[in-house]
Fold this sequence. Notes:
elongated
Amino acid sequence: MTGPQHKREKPGPKDLNARELHRAAVTDARRTARTRIFFALLAALLIVGGAVVFSWFSLREPPPQPNVVEVPASTGVSSLIVIENPQREAASIVLVASHPEIADRLELLNPSLLSYVPGYGEFEISELAPLGGGDLIALTITNLLGVRIDAVHVFSEESFLRAVAEPLEVDLAEPLIVGEGDADRVIAAEGEGLRNPEMLYTLLSEPGRGDESSFVLRQSRVWTAILQQVAVDGEFADVFLDSAHPDTILALNGAAQDPDLVVSSLPVKRAEVLGGSLEQYVFDGSETATIVGRSFSYLQLTDEPRISVEILNGNGGVGVTAPIAELLVERGFHVIRTDNADRDDYGETQVVSQGREHQQAAIAIADLIGFGEVVLELRAPSGIFGVTIILGQDISG
Length: 397
Protein backbone atom coordinates (compact mmCIF):
# COMPACT_ATOMS: atom_id res chain seq x y z
CA MET A 1 0.00 0.00 0.00
CA THR A 2 1.43 3.31 -0.98
CA GLY A 3 1.60 6.39 1.21
CA PRO A 4 -0.06 9.81 0.62
CA GLN A 5 0.42 11.39 -2.87
CA HIS A 6 1.92 14.94 -2.89
CA LYS A 7 1.37 17.48 -5.75
CA ARG A 8 4.65 18.67 -7.13
CA GLU A 9 5.34 22.42 -6.63
CA LYS A 10 6.67 24.59 -9.52
CA PRO A 11 10.19 25.62 -8.83
CA GLY A 12 10.43 29.12 -7.30
CA PRO A 13 13.18 31.63 -7.75
CA LYS A 14 15.23 29.82 -5.23
CA ASP A 15 15.21 26.81 -7.52
CA LEU A 16 16.70 28.80 -10.52
CA ASN A 17 20.35 29.07 -11.19
CA ALA A 18 22.09 32.38 -11.93
CA ARG A 19 21.75 32.15 -15.76
CA GLU A 20 18.05 31.50 -15.54
CA LEU A 21 17.57 34.38 -13.13
CA HIS A 22 19.33 36.74 -15.54
CA ARG A 23 17.23 35.55 -18.48
CA ALA A 24 13.98 36.08 -16.50
CA ALA A 25 15.04 39.58 -15.48
CA VAL A 26 15.81 40.56 -19.10
CA THR A 27 12.45 39.20 -20.28
CA ASP A 28 10.55 41.15 -17.62
CA ALA A 29 12.45 44.33 -18.47
CA ARG A 30 11.60 44.01 -22.19
CA ARG A 31 7.93 43.33 -21.43
CA THR A 32 7.76 46.39 -19.20
CA ALA A 33 9.46 48.55 -21.84
CA ARG A 34 7.06 47.39 -24.57
CA THR A 35 4.10 48.15 -22.31
CA ARG A 36 5.37 51.63 -21.59
CA ILE A 37 6.03 52.33 -25.28
CA PHE A 38 2.51 51.14 -26.21
CA PHE A 39 0.82 53.40 -23.67
CA ALA A 40 3.06 56.32 -24.65
CA LEU A 41 2.11 55.90 -28.33
CA LEU A 42 -1.56 55.59 -27.41
CA ALA A 43 -1.41 58.79 -25.36
CA ALA A 44 0.36 60.61 -28.21
CA LEU A 45 -2.28 59.47 -30.70
CA LEU A 46 -5.08 60.66 -28.40
CA ILE A 47 -3.38 64.04 -27.98
CA VAL A 48 -2.86 64.50 -31.74
CA GLY A 49 -6.37 63.30 -32.55
CA GLY A 50 -7.89 65.63 -29.98
CA ALA A 51 -5.92 68.54 -31.36
CA VAL A 52 -7.11 67.79 -34.91
CA VAL A 53 -10.75 67.55 -33.82
CA PHE A 54 -10.44 70.75 -31.79
CA SER A 55 -8.84 72.56 -34.74
CA TRP A 56 -11.60 71.35 -37.09
CA PHE A 57 -14.32 72.62 -34.78
CA SER A 58 -12.43 75.87 -34.23
CA LEU A 59 -11.57 76.67 -37.84
CA ARG A 60 -14.65 75.52 -39.76
CA GLU A 61 -17.25 78.20 -40.60
CA PRO A 62 -20.27 78.05 -38.31
CA PRO A 63 -23.47 77.03 -40.08
CA PRO A 64 -25.89 79.87 -40.89
CA GLN A 65 -28.22 80.58 -38.01
CA PRO A 66 -31.94 80.85 -38.87
CA ASN A 67 -33.29 84.36 -38.77
CA VAL A 68 -35.98 84.26 -36.08
CA VAL A 69 -38.11 87.38 -36.20
CA GLU A 70 -40.96 89.13 -34.50
CA VAL A 71 -44.45 88.56 -35.92
CA PRO A 72 -46.24 91.64 -37.34
CA ALA A 73 -49.25 93.00 -35.48
CA SER A 74 -52.78 92.09 -36.54
CA THR A 75 -52.87 95.26 -38.66
CA GLY A 76 -49.88 94.03 -40.66
CA VAL A 77 -46.87 96.05 -41.76
CA SER A 78 -45.59 97.36 -45.07
CA SER A 79 -42.43 98.88 -46.49
CA LEU A 80 -41.34 100.28 -49.81
CA ILE A 81 -37.88 99.17 -51.00
CA VAL A 82 -36.19 101.15 -53.78
CA ILE A 83 -32.97 100.32 -55.63
CA GLU A 84 -31.44 103.29 -57.41
CA ASN A 85 -29.46 102.89 -60.62
CA PRO A 86 -26.11 104.70 -61.09
CA GLN A 87 -28.04 107.75 -62.38
CA ARG A 88 -29.97 107.85 -59.05
CA GLU A 89 -33.25 106.91 -60.72
CA ALA A 90 -35.52 104.31 -59.14
CA ALA A 91 -34.75 101.07 -61.00
CA SER A 92 -36.35 98.44 -58.75
CA ILE A 93 -39.44 99.32 -56.70
CA VAL A 94 -40.96 96.74 -54.37
CA LEU A 95 -43.86 97.02 -51.93
CA VAL A 96 -43.43 94.43 -49.15
CA ALA A 97 -46.52 93.58 -47.12
CA SER A 98 -46.52 91.20 -44.15
CA HIS A 99 -49.35 89.92 -41.96
CA PRO A 100 -49.43 87.14 -39.34
CA GLU A 101 -52.49 85.41 -40.86
CA ILE A 102 -52.51 86.39 -44.54
CA ALA A 103 -49.98 85.38 -47.19
CA ASP A 104 -47.21 87.98 -47.37
CA ARG A 105 -46.53 89.71 -50.66
CA LEU A 106 -43.77 91.28 -52.70
CA GLU A 107 -45.43 93.55 -55.23
CA LEU A 108 -43.05 94.85 -57.91
CA LEU A 109 -43.83 98.02 -59.83
CA ASN A 110 -42.68 98.95 -63.32
CA PRO A 111 -40.09 101.75 -63.17
CA SER A 112 -41.71 103.44 -66.19
CA LEU A 113 -45.20 103.36 -64.65
CA LEU A 114 -46.88 106.70 -65.35
CA SER A 115 -48.71 107.96 -62.29
CA TYR A 116 -50.06 111.18 -60.89
CA VAL A 117 -47.75 112.60 -58.24
CA PRO A 118 -49.74 114.70 -55.74
CA GLY A 119 -48.56 118.29 -55.92
CA TYR A 120 -46.25 117.70 -58.89
CA GLY A 121 -48.16 116.31 -61.85
CA GLU A 122 -47.69 113.16 -63.93
CA PHE A 123 -44.32 111.41 -63.88
CA GLU A 124 -42.75 108.01 -64.37
CA ILE A 125 -42.08 106.51 -60.94
CA SER A 126 -38.40 106.06 -61.82
CA GLU A 127 -38.04 109.85 -62.15
CA LEU A 128 -39.20 110.60 -58.61
CA ALA A 129 -36.07 109.52 -56.72
CA PRO A 130 -34.09 112.67 -57.69
CA LEU A 131 -37.16 114.86 -56.99
CA GLY A 132 -38.11 113.64 -53.53
CA GLY A 133 -36.49 110.30 -52.86
CA GLY A 134 -38.33 107.25 -51.65
CA ASP A 135 -40.89 109.25 -49.67
CA LEU A 136 -42.30 110.83 -52.82
CA ILE A 137 -42.48 107.42 -54.49
CA ALA A 138 -44.29 106.05 -51.42
CA LEU A 139 -46.78 108.95 -51.48
CA THR A 140 -47.44 108.29 -55.17
CA ILE A 141 -48.09 104.59 -54.58
CA THR A 142 -50.31 105.35 -51.60
CA ASN A 143 -52.31 107.74 -53.76
CA LEU A 144 -52.44 105.17 -56.56
CA LEU A 145 -53.61 102.21 -54.47
CA GLY A 146 -55.08 103.72 -51.33
CA VAL A 147 -52.83 101.71 -49.00
CA ARG A 148 -50.57 102.81 -46.20
CA ILE A 149 -46.81 102.42 -46.43
CA ASP A 150 -45.24 102.25 -42.98
CA ALA A 151 -41.58 102.73 -43.94
CA VAL A 152 -39.29 103.39 -46.89
CA HIS A 153 -35.75 102.13 -47.52
CA VAL A 154 -33.64 103.28 -50.47
CA PHE A 155 -30.51 101.46 -51.64
CA SER A 156 -27.93 103.32 -53.67
CA GLU A 157 -25.38 101.27 -55.57
CA GLU A 158 -22.87 101.70 -52.74
CA SER A 159 -25.24 100.80 -49.92
CA PHE A 160 -26.58 97.78 -51.82
CA LEU A 161 -23.09 96.38 -52.31
CA ARG A 162 -22.43 96.81 -48.60
CA ALA A 163 -25.73 95.13 -47.73
CA VAL A 164 -25.27 92.14 -50.05
CA ALA A 165 -21.63 91.21 -49.51
CA GLU A 166 -21.73 87.62 -50.73
CA PRO A 167 -22.76 85.76 -53.91
CA LEU A 168 -26.29 84.37 -54.15
CA GLU A 169 -27.79 81.64 -56.32
CA VAL A 170 -30.24 83.18 -58.81
CA ASP A 171 -32.20 81.32 -61.48
CA LEU A 172 -32.77 83.57 -64.50
CA ALA A 173 -35.54 82.84 -66.98
CA GLU A 174 -33.73 84.83 -69.68
CA PRO A 175 -30.15 86.04 -70.16
CA LEU A 176 -29.31 89.68 -69.47
CA ILE A 177 -28.19 91.21 -72.75
CA VAL A 178 -26.86 94.75 -73.02
CA GLY A 179 -25.94 96.78 -76.05
CA GLU A 180 -22.36 97.83 -76.66
CA GLY A 181 -22.21 100.06 -79.70
CA ASP A 182 -23.62 98.11 -82.63
CA ALA A 183 -23.24 94.76 -80.87
CA ASP A 184 -25.00 92.94 -78.04
CA ARG A 185 -23.27 91.22 -75.16
CA VAL A 186 -24.59 88.62 -72.71
CA ILE A 187 -23.46 89.61 -69.23
CA ALA A 188 -25.59 87.11 -67.27
CA ALA A 189 -26.54 83.72 -68.66
CA GLU A 190 -29.99 82.24 -68.16
CA GLY A 191 -30.53 79.39 -65.72
CA GLU A 192 -29.14 78.85 -62.24
CA GLY A 193 -25.90 80.51 -61.32
CA LEU A 194 -23.98 81.99 -58.43
CA ARG A 195 -24.09 85.78 -58.91
CA ASN A 196 -21.67 88.06 -57.11
CA PRO A 197 -22.94 91.27 -55.42
CA GLU A 198 -21.98 93.47 -58.38
CA MET A 199 -23.95 91.23 -60.74
CA LEU A 200 -26.93 91.14 -58.36
CA TYR A 201 -27.01 94.93 -58.43
CA THR A 202 -26.76 94.92 -62.23
CA LEU A 203 -29.63 92.46 -62.50
CA LEU A 204 -31.79 94.81 -60.43
CA SER A 205 -30.77 98.08 -62.07
CA GLU A 206 -29.96 97.36 -65.73
CA PRO A 207 -33.03 96.98 -68.03
CA GLY A 208 -31.05 95.32 -70.81
CA ARG A 209 -32.28 94.67 -74.33
CA GLY A 210 -35.57 93.02 -73.35
CA ASP A 211 -38.86 94.76 -72.63
CA GLU A 212 -39.72 95.98 -69.15
CA SER A 213 -41.82 92.93 -68.28
CA SER A 214 -38.66 90.83 -68.65
CA PHE A 215 -36.79 93.34 -66.49
CA VAL A 216 -39.39 93.12 -63.71
CA LEU A 217 -39.44 89.31 -63.90
CA ARG A 218 -35.65 89.26 -63.53
CA GLN A 219 -35.93 91.55 -60.51
CA SER A 220 -38.42 89.16 -58.91
CA ARG A 221 -35.90 86.30 -59.21
CA VAL A 222 -33.21 88.37 -57.49
CA TRP A 223 -35.53 89.50 -54.70
CA THR A 224 -36.59 85.89 -54.12
CA ALA A 225 -32.95 84.86 -53.73
CA ILE A 226 -32.29 87.71 -51.29
CA LEU A 227 -35.28 86.82 -49.13
CA GLN A 228 -34.33 83.15 -49.11
CA GLN A 229 -30.92 84.11 -47.75
CA VAL A 230 -32.50 86.45 -45.18
CA ALA A 231 -34.63 83.53 -43.98
CA VAL A 232 -31.79 81.05 -43.41
CA ASP A 233 -28.85 83.26 -42.46
CA GLY A 234 -29.24 85.57 -39.49
CA GLU A 235 -25.86 87.23 -40.11
CA PHE A 236 -26.80 88.03 -43.70
CA ALA A 237 -30.13 89.44 -42.52
CA ASP A 238 -28.39 91.65 -39.95
CA VAL A 239 -26.07 93.13 -42.58
CA PHE A 240 -28.75 93.48 -45.27
CA LEU A 241 -31.18 95.22 -42.90
CA ASP A 242 -28.59 97.29 -41.08
CA SER A 243 -29.84 100.85 -40.40
CA ALA A 244 -33.29 100.06 -41.88
CA HIS A 245 -36.46 101.35 -40.22
CA PRO A 246 -37.93 98.84 -37.73
CA ASP A 247 -41.04 98.46 -39.92
CA THR A 248 -38.84 97.67 -42.93
CA ILE A 249 -37.03 95.01 -40.92
CA LEU A 250 -40.32 93.56 -39.73
CA ALA A 251 -41.88 93.52 -43.20
CA LEU A 252 -38.88 91.96 -44.97
CA ASN A 253 -38.24 89.43 -42.23
CA GLY A 254 -41.89 88.46 -42.14
CA ALA A 255 -42.00 87.99 -45.91
CA ALA A 256 -38.75 85.99 -45.86
CA GLN A 257 -40.11 83.56 -43.26
CA ASP A 258 -43.51 83.05 -44.94
CA PRO A 259 -43.64 79.76 -46.91
CA ASP A 260 -46.71 81.08 -48.73
CA LEU A 261 -45.05 84.31 -49.87
CA VAL A 262 -46.51 85.67 -53.11
CA VAL A 263 -44.17 87.50 -55.49
CA SER A 264 -46.05 89.38 -58.21
CA SER A 265 -46.05 92.60 -60.20
CA LEU A 266 -48.68 95.30 -60.32
CA PRO A 267 -50.84 94.71 -63.43
CA VAL A 268 -50.27 97.43 -66.01
CA LYS A 269 -50.91 98.07 -69.67
CA ARG A 270 -48.77 99.75 -72.29
CA ALA A 271 -49.38 103.49 -72.52
CA GLU A 272 -50.15 105.15 -75.81
CA VAL A 273 -47.10 107.31 -76.45
CA LEU A 274 -46.67 109.69 -79.35
CA GLY A 275 -44.30 108.04 -81.81
CA GLY A 276 -44.61 104.67 -80.09
CA SER A 277 -40.90 104.29 -79.31
CA LEU A 278 -40.96 105.10 -75.59
CA GLU A 279 -41.90 102.27 -73.25
CA GLN A 280 -44.33 103.51 -70.61
CA TYR A 281 -47.12 101.84 -68.66
CA VAL A 282 -50.28 102.89 -66.86
CA PHE A 283 -52.29 101.25 -64.10
CA ASP A 284 -56.00 100.69 -64.57
CA GLY A 285 -57.53 102.41 -61.54
CA SER A 286 -60.77 100.46 -61.95
CA GLU A 287 -58.91 97.37 -60.68
CA THR A 288 -57.61 99.03 -57.52
CA ALA A 289 -60.31 97.80 -55.15
CA THR A 290 -60.04 94.24 -56.43
CA ILE A 291 -56.24 94.12 -56.26
CA VAL A 292 -55.97 95.73 -52.83
CA GLY A 293 -58.84 93.70 -51.40
CA ARG A 294 -57.29 90.46 -52.61
CA SER A 295 -53.65 91.19 -51.85
CA PHE A 296 -53.37 93.39 -48.75
CA SER A 297 -56.74 94.55 -47.53
CA TYR A 298 -55.26 95.15 -44.07
CA LEU A 299 -53.30 98.11 -45.51
CA GLN A 300 -56.34 99.94 -46.90
CA LEU A 301 -56.62 103.51 -45.63
CA THR A 302 -60.39 103.37 -45.78
CA ASP A 303 -63.04 100.68 -46.25
CA GLU A 304 -65.21 103.10 -48.20
CA PRO A 305 -64.65 104.09 -51.84
CA ARG A 306 -62.05 106.87 -51.95
CA ILE A 307 -63.23 110.38 -52.76
CA SER A 308 -61.42 111.95 -55.72
CA VAL A 309 -60.05 115.42 -54.99
CA GLU A 310 -58.83 118.36 -57.08
CA ILE A 311 -56.56 120.95 -55.42
CA LEU A 312 -56.14 124.35 -57.07
CA ASN A 313 -53.72 127.14 -56.18
CA GLY A 314 -55.81 130.32 -55.81
CA ASN A 315 -53.29 132.50 -53.97
CA GLY A 316 -50.29 132.60 -56.30
CA GLY A 317 -47.93 130.98 -53.80
CA VAL A 318 -45.25 128.46 -54.73
CA GLY A 319 -45.65 124.80 -53.74
CA VAL A 320 -48.80 125.39 -51.69
CA THR A 321 -50.74 122.42 -53.05
CA ALA A 322 -48.17 119.73 -52.22
CA PRO A 323 -48.52 119.63 -48.38
CA ILE A 324 -52.32 119.70 -48.62
CA ALA A 325 -52.22 116.88 -51.18
CA GLU A 326 -49.93 114.80 -48.98
CA LEU A 327 -52.19 115.26 -45.96
CA LEU A 328 -55.30 114.21 -47.88
CA VAL A 329 -53.63 111.19 -49.50
CA GLU A 330 -52.48 109.89 -46.12
CA ARG A 331 -56.05 110.23 -44.81
CA GLY A 332 -57.51 108.11 -47.60
CA PHE A 333 -58.52 110.63 -50.24
CA HIS A 334 -57.52 110.19 -53.89
CA VAL A 335 -55.84 113.32 -55.23
CA ILE A 336 -56.02 113.17 -59.01
CA ARG A 337 -55.22 116.76 -59.97
CA THR A 338 -53.29 119.76 -58.64
CA ASP A 339 -53.15 122.93 -60.73
CA ASN A 340 -53.57 126.69 -60.69
CA ALA A 341 -57.03 128.17 -60.16
CA ASP A 342 -58.72 130.57 -62.58
CA ARG A 343 -57.22 133.47 -60.60
CA ASP A 344 -54.73 133.97 -57.79
CA ASP A 345 -56.51 136.44 -55.53
CA TYR A 346 -58.80 134.17 -53.54
CA GLY A 347 -58.90 135.49 -50.01
CA GLU A 348 -60.57 132.51 -48.34
CA THR A 349 -60.05 128.86 -49.20
CA GLN A 350 -63.09 127.16 -50.68
CA VAL A 351 -63.82 123.46 -50.25
CA VAL A 352 -66.35 122.73 -52.97
CA SER A 353 -68.64 119.71 -52.78
CA GLN A 354 -69.36 118.60 -56.34
CA GLY A 355 -72.99 117.61 -55.74
CA ARG A 356 -74.87 116.81 -52.55
CA GLU A 357 -73.46 113.26 -52.32
CA HIS A 358 -69.99 114.62 -51.49
CA GLN A 359 -71.03 117.26 -48.97
CA GLN A 360 -69.92 115.23 -45.92
CA ALA A 361 -66.57 114.59 -47.56
CA ALA A 362 -66.13 118.34 -48.15
CA ILE A 363 -66.93 119.06 -44.49
CA ALA A 364 -64.45 116.36 -43.40
CA ILE A 365 -61.72 117.89 -45.60
CA ALA A 366 -62.32 121.39 -44.23
CA ASP A 367 -62.04 120.00 -40.70
CA LEU A 368 -58.90 118.10 -41.65
CA ILE A 369 -57.00 121.05 -43.15
CA GLY A 370 -58.32 123.38 -40.44
CA PHE A 371 -59.59 126.24 -42.60
CA GLY A 372 -61.80 127.03 -45.59
CA GLU A 373 -65.45 127.62 -46.42
CA VAL A 374 -67.52 124.64 -47.54
CA VAL A 375 -69.38 125.39 -50.79
CA LEU A 376 -72.03 123.21 -52.42
CA GLU A 377 -71.92 123.08 -56.23
CA LEU A 378 -75.29 122.06 -57.65
CA ARG A 379 -75.54 123.88 -61.00
CA ALA A 380 -72.71 122.10 -62.82
CA PRO A 381 -71.03 119.58 -60.51
CA SER A 382 -67.93 117.87 -61.84
CA GLY A 383 -68.30 114.33 -63.06
CA ILE A 384 -64.64 113.65 -62.30
CA PHE A 385 -63.94 115.12 -58.87
CA GLY A 386 -65.91 114.64 -55.69
CA VAL A 387 -64.38 117.67 -53.99
CA THR A 388 -62.48 120.68 -55.34
CA ILE A 389 -60.25 122.72 -53.03
CA ILE A 390 -59.31 126.27 -54.05
CA LEU A 391 -56.55 127.48 -51.76
CA GLY A 392 -56.78 131.15 -50.76
CA GLN A 393 -54.64 133.62 -48.88
CA ASP A 394 -55.76 132.14 -45.54
CA ILE A 395 -53.58 129.08 -46.09
CA SER A 396 -50.55 130.96 -44.82
CA GLY A 397 -52.42 132.69 -42.02
